[in-house]
Amino acid sequence: MPAIAAAALLGTVVVAGVAGGSDDGGSATAETFETTPGTEPEDAVEPAPETTEAEPVETRPDDEKVPLNRTLVDGVVGDDVARVQERLHELGFNPGPVDGVYGGLTIQSIWAYEKLVLQVPREQVTGRVTPDMWDRMQDHVKITPRRPEPGTRNHTEVYLPEQVMAVFHDGTPVFVAHISHGTGEEWCREVTISPGEYGNEDGEEPKKEGRCGISNTPGGIFTYHRKYEGHRQSALGGMLNPVYFNYGIAIHGAQSVPNRPASHGCIRIPNALSETYFELVSIGERVFVWDGVKEPEQYGEQFPTFDWRWDEWYATSTTTSTTTTTLVPETTLAPETTVVETTVPESTSTSTSTTTTTTTTTTTVPVDLDDDDLDDDLDDG
């Protein structure tokens, strides 16, 4: 592993708490551009400061802890679940409402806790809370930024290897969430681009195009420069409440946020958390992205991989078809028998038709945390 990568991994954001204390679809309207990608803010960050080292977490006495008598898994309910949700909120994580239901948002929040605090590799997280884990969660844990002096009062840190992001206000975590970023794969597809998005900047209506690209999420230091409230479509896919920091790359709500890279380059967070995130960040704030290879300062404001025209789509979409119309001569003689002909597609045999009444029951199923097979028009960015 490169030395700089090792330093980044050792630079954890979890440190000891202070003794005796504990810590946490609509129409689109754009905010005014306050900064432009590629411009250097006045208060530039010094190159590659040292990352924060991990310190032992202070252990809370056992007589101050509430024991957990079972392992919490998807679907369980109870006061013990509510206590876990409350603790996650205290630490800055976002498990959704404190409702005592161990569902998808709580599982994704535990993923983030496992990866960020317990340093569990992404591939090994469980999304479960065992009695031993709950015991550790009650210790004095504090999450601090890797860049305590980021150049702006509030800032965002994105950790791609761990697939976790954190929004800090004056050094305090106010939003820590599991994310999914770009797969690194090449893609070609038909896309819908909303007015105002790159590729349809001056348009008044959404337009369809054939585009190709590479699902890359670059590391570096960036600045929030544009945000839209509501649903948007871009060449990278569908987005809810996107906030852009690197041209068309945004942090936004998505339907599918699995525990693996899955996006076309954007940073996905759960749809249910996107409104909270949207309200916590502002134009002009810094965004630091770690890719596990180099420190953000070594990249600076790195350009994204821009998409390009998909020539095959244009060739197919411009092909014209010829339709032949046959005129039937008029007749003044009424036929003795009127025959109504029905054409059944892809059927060449005659059979007796039997009418069967089928009752269909629709069951609401929770969103699959690993679902990535979405319709193209709804595909997340």
Structural notes for this entry:
The protein is an alpha+beta fold. Among the domains are: 76-138, Muramoyl-pentapeptide Carboxypeptidase, domain 1; 154-296 and 306-311, L,D-transpeptidase catalytic domain-like. It is built from seven helices and 16 strands. The strands form four sheets. Strands 2, 10, 11, 12, 13 and 14 form a six-stranded mixed β-sheet that branches. Strand 5 and strand 6 form a beta hairpin. The model is unreliable at 1-13, 16-45, 47-56, 320-368 and 370-378 (pLDDT under 50).
List key phrases describing it.
L,D-transpeptidase catalytic domain-like; 6-stranded mixed beta sheet; 7 helices; about 15% helix
State Rg. 27 Å
Task: Say what the CATH topology of the domain at 154-296 and 306-311 is.
Answer: L,D-transpeptidase catalytic domain-like
Distance between the termini: 30 Å
The main pleated sheet reads as: 6 strands, mixed
Helix-strand string:
HEEHHHEEEEEEEEEEEEHEHEH
CATH level 1 name of the domain at 154-296 and 306-311: Mainly Beta
Q: How many individual helices?
A: 7
In one word, what is the shape? globular
Average of per-residue pLDDT values: 77
- What is the quaternary state of this protein? single chain
Query: Can you give the helix content as a percent range?
Result: 10-25%
**Second CATH tier, the architecture of the domain at 154-296 and 306-311:** Beta Barrel
Give a count of the beta strands, DSSP E runs of length 2 or more: 16
Strand content bin: 15-25%
Q: Decide which structural class fits the backbone.
A: alpha+beta
Query: Which regions have little confidence, pLDDT < 50, spanning 5+ residues?
Result: 1-13, 16-45, 47-56, 320-368, 370-378
* Corresponding CATH superfamily of the domain at 154-296 and 306-311: L,D-transpeptidase catalytic domain-like
